[in-house]
Amino acid sequence: MQFTSLVFILFFSVFFAVYWWIIGKNLKAQNVFLLLGSYVFYAYWDWRLLILLIGSSAIIYYLGLKISRSENSGKKLWLNLGLIFSVGTLLYFKYFNFFIQSFTDLFGIKNNLTLNIILPLGISFYTFRMVSYLLDIKNTKLKAETDALAFFNYIAFFPSMTSGPIDKGGLLLPQLKKERVFTLENGSDAARQILLGAFKKLVVANTISPVTEKIFQGYEHLSGSTIAFGAILFLFQMYADFSGYSDMAIGFAKLLGFKTTKNFAFPLFAQNIADYWRKWHISLTSWLTEYVFTPLVIAFRDYDKKGLMLAVFLNFVIIGFWHGANWTFIVYGCLQGLYYVPLVVNNQINKKKKLSKTIPTFKELGNIIYTMALVCFALILFVAPSLKDAFGMYGKIFSLSFFSVPQFIKIKILGLIGIIILIDWINKDQEHGLEISRFKPVVRRAFYIFLILMIMYFGVFGDSSFIYQQF
């Protein structure tokens, strides 16, 4: 059930009406209805996998209580059981065939062990919610939830189920236990964010998608310049697709009275690769920073900068592997880790700079171009179906054909990219890209109408699946 599909629009319209206008005064009934709605949303994908979601929620709920009520050694035991169960489930469904295939390829064994495994919807996202919940209880950052209804809602919360954001229990659980009030101000802000997300996805991402597919599927017959151009296009496609989904997810959650985790902070203007990852998929990078990177830094603190480099590198290997069961994603993570080496050496990993208010300076523009070039270069690994294909594309880029005129240049696509850049730059200091209350009403309304007309006339409503849904 895609956010941009007619089925979801009908589902959410009915759900919204019942949620606020029929049972809005009764918190428990509202939470029961929210959980039922989340399970209907999930079952629409595959009802069989709903059993896994409910069962996993029940086990983690029980283990959370056991961690909370046990002494030190008991806490560790129950935590380890929870981590083995949650991470083990993820590894089985997402990586079992990858491990088997890699093992048999390594030793030249004929492979008859791969299984026809259906990847559960959103398993990478809700697994991380479960893991953070258990770790926060163990570290006394969070009390074990005794309200089963609130906990099951936290795991299955449908606006964030398909592709995040990855909300932690400390943010979402308290909101599930207090009265929620719908206000016109929050509703209007949510509608604006949903409108922007729909524009990004339906107009920008879906318009670019057919072009990038042609380029990367037929790269053997194309020039290096065309492949490089394809990587640039894919950057904007993925940004519009994923940030568009996040805008809609946050907006739909806001319409239900919830504040969820911000997932993007205008990464197209990042001044270096560390700045980019602070602004891109924030809920994932902040999760890994807290639960993986920081513990690694502490463990390697005696090794100074070498220890910091190792912590960064291992963190990005996990980020790469999280994205998919393919060696291309692992190498993608390794490359991102290597990008950090100059920043660590020069003590620039944590330096943050505020951008100019009007137009970027030459230095800022140079930093943006350099950072996005690094991002686009790595994205070849992200889109390639195998390392062989990735190296084939890199071979083309580093050939003389790189200096030819690229194919597939379309004014319409360049114009859409220009609109995205302009919207983001104007609102780079705001919470999201359509937070334009500071402009005059006539300007705001004209821009809303412009986006609606763009969606009506240029929106591609066919296959509306989101890139990050596969992760």
Automatic annotation (TrEMBL):
One of its GO terms (cellular component) is plasma membrane. It is found in: Cell membrane. Signal peptide: none annotated. It is a multi-pass membrane protein. It comes from Chryseobacterium oranimense. Keywords: Acyltransferase, Cell membrane, Membrane, Transferase, Transmembrane, Transmembrane helix. This is D-alanyl-lipoteichoic acid acyltransferase DltB, MBOAT superfamily. GO terms for molecular function: acyltransferase activity. InterPro entries: Ac/AlaTfrase_AlgI/DltB, AlgI, MB_O-acyltransferase, MBOAT_fam. The keyword Transmembrane helix applies. GO terms for biological process: alginic acid biosynthetic process. The lineage of its organism: Bacteria, Pseudomonadati, Bacteroidota, Flavobacteriia, Flavobacteriales. The keyword Transferase applies. Its main location: membrane. The chain crosses the membrane at residues 7-24, 44-65, 77-95, 115-135, 222-240, 280-300, 307-323, 329-347, 368-387, 407-426, 447-468. Belongs to the membrane-bound acyltransferase family.
